[in-house]
Design goal:
The protein is of the alpha/beta class. The chain contains ten helices and seven strands. The chain is globular, with a radius of gyration of 19 Å.
């Protein structure tokens, strides 16, 4: 069984992870009546921004498979003394089906974990209310050293092992082609030049990926195997992303966006 998400590790780079989410939200048009669904809401990082934009006119529903992340979302929202979400549901987002047509299905860095986007995205679009919006942001980093080296190191250390499948994320234009039949589509790609600070242990890029892309590669490894894998990955990252004189590392990161407004 896969290890659950670690909210603390994920939140260590909250500002860098939140910027694409807010960039996506800024492009969402006005909505018809209906729920706003935060699909793959995680620890609720985007909840305050969604609530500020759409409540009280639209109920805000968060859905995520991770019990640990949902617990953090509930804790943070309770501590804030503000009921930002009208519901938090633990469920497999791959099986999501709306009970009533949503005004907005918003998904930030979540659908990249699911396969077969050629079937997934039209299925989500078909759930929307008339005039409803599907707004999605996903990393498209599979060809970058940060993600390519995860696979290369695993293949070198553990030949013959079954590895996680390659990323299913398509190019921006391919999502436009998939969804044009449903209405107006805008799709684009942004390269974020992230500056990562030094960390106490290991390479800064590993600190960024270990809570997300690295998780499926270390799931199932023994303690010794995991330590060998992390050490080899750190060494490879040192060559791919050399430190600047002040110890920081420049880490380009590509993300794909699209917004469908259903006609």
């Amino acid at each position: 069984m896969a290890v659950d998400w670690d909210p603390a590790r994920y939140a260590a780079f909250r500002d860098l992870r939140l910027r694409p989410a807010l960039d996506l939200l800024a492009q969402v048009p006005e909505l018809p009546a209906g729920d706003v669904v935060d699909l793959g809401c995680g620890d609720g990082a985007v909840g305050p921004a969604l609530a500020a934009r759409f409540k009280p006119d639209h109920p805000l529903i968060g859905i995520d498979a991770s019990a640990a992340m949902l617990a953090k979302a509930a804790e943070l929202l309770t501590r804030a003394g503000n009921r930002l979400y009208d519901g938090l549901t633990q469920a497999d987002i791959a099986l999501y089906s709306a009970h009533t047509p949503p005004a907005l299905i918003y998904s930030n860095a979540a659908l990249n974990w699911l396969p077969d986007h050629a079937a997934l995205m039209p299925r989500l679009a078909g759930m929307l209310a008339r005039g409803g919006v599907l707004a999605v942001q996903m990393p498209r980093q599979g060809d970058a050293p940060s993600h390519r080296l995860l696979r290369d190191v695993a293949e070198e250390l553990f030949p013959g092992r079954v590895l996680p499948p390659p990323s299913s994320v398509l190019q921006a234009g391919e999502y436009a082609d998939l969804l044009l039949a449903f209405g107006e589509v805008r799709a684009w790609t942004t390269d974020y030049l992230q500056m990562l600070d030094p960390v106490a242990e290991g390479h800064p890029v590993r600190a960024f990926t270990q809570s997300t892309a690295m998780r499926p590669f270390v799931d199932g490894l023994t303690g010794d195997e995991a330590r060998a894998y992390v050490a080899a990955y750190d060494a490879a990252l040192t060559t791919a992303y050399p430190a600047l004189p002040d110890g920081r590392v420049l880490f380009p990161f590509t993300r794909v966006f699209f917004i469908l407004e259903r006609s």
